[in-house]
């Protein structure tokens, strides 16, 4: 994103879409590396021939958690920098649903809407984003989630 915005400006956008990320391709090789790293080599992710023969997916699909792990990179693309922010941490999720499988080779992107900005002055705020991870050329999204982040910084009296 370009210019940083104040926390008050961001808070004023509650309920609105804040940004959309670029597309990310999920290649079979990446899925295999994620499977090895997490020790989750279930055949629907790692065995194209078996997945084609034994699942309704027509081939392998990305792990839901692999898809979810792209949210950080997507947020760097889509969300504005908050003026005065020193740091941010992932606080967790209020809700996550894996709505549709992501076929190996598909492209995904994230849409971010600000659901809530909680700031009572001081140097800490909690931001909740409604996130939808879309699959290129698919009717249903891969993931819908309510993602919570905590930020710290010098936001000033008006945020």
What does this structure look like?
The structure is a single chain. This protein is an alpha+beta fold and 159 residues long. The chain is 26% helix and 35% strand. The protein has 6 helices and 6 strands, in the order H-E-E-H-H-H-H-H-E-E-E-E. Strands 1, 2, 3, 4, 5 and 6 form a 6-stranded antiparallel beta sheet that branches. Strand 4 and strand 5 (124-135) form a beta hairpin.
Sheet with most strands: 6 strands, antiparallel
Report the principal-axis shape. elongated
Low-confidence spans: none
Structure summary, number of beta strands? 6
Q: What gap, in angstroms, lies between the N and C termini?
A: 19 Å
Helix content: 25-40%
Whole-number radius of gyration? 18 Å
- How many H/I helices? 6
Order of helices and strands: HEEHHHHHEEEE
Strand residues, percent: 35-45%
Structural class by helix and strand composition = alpha+beta
**Mean pLDDT figure:** 95
Summary tags:
alpha+beta, 6-stranded antiparallel β-sheet
Brief summary:
The protein is of the alpha+beta class.
Map the helices and strands:
Elements: H1 7-11, E1 17-20, E2 24-25, H2 28-38, H3 43-46, H4 48-54, H5 64-69, H6 71-78, E3 85-98, E4 107-119, E5 124-135, E6 143-153
Antiparallel strand pairs: 1-4, 2-4, 3-6, 4-5, 5-6
């Amino acid at each position: 994103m370009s210019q940083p915005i104040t926390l008050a400006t961001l808070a004023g956008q509650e309920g609105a879409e804040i940004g959309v990320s670029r597309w990310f391709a999920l290649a079979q090789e990446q899925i295999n590396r994620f499977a090895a790293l997490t020790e989750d080599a279930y055949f629907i992710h790692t065995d194209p021939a078996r997945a084609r023969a034994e699942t309704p997916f027509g081939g392998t699909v990305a792990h839901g958690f692999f898809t979810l792990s792209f949210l950080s990179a997507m947020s760097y693309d889509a969300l504005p920098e908050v003026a005065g922010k020193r740091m941010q941490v992932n606080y967790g999720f209020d809700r996550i649903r894996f709505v549709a499988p992501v076929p190996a080779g598909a492209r995904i992107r994230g849409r971010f809407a600000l659901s809530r900005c909680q700031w009572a002055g001081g140097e800490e705020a909690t931001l909740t984003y409604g996130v939808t991870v879309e699959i290129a050329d698919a009717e249903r999204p891969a993931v819908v989630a309510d993602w919570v982040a905590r930020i710290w910084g010098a936001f000033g009296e008006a945020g």
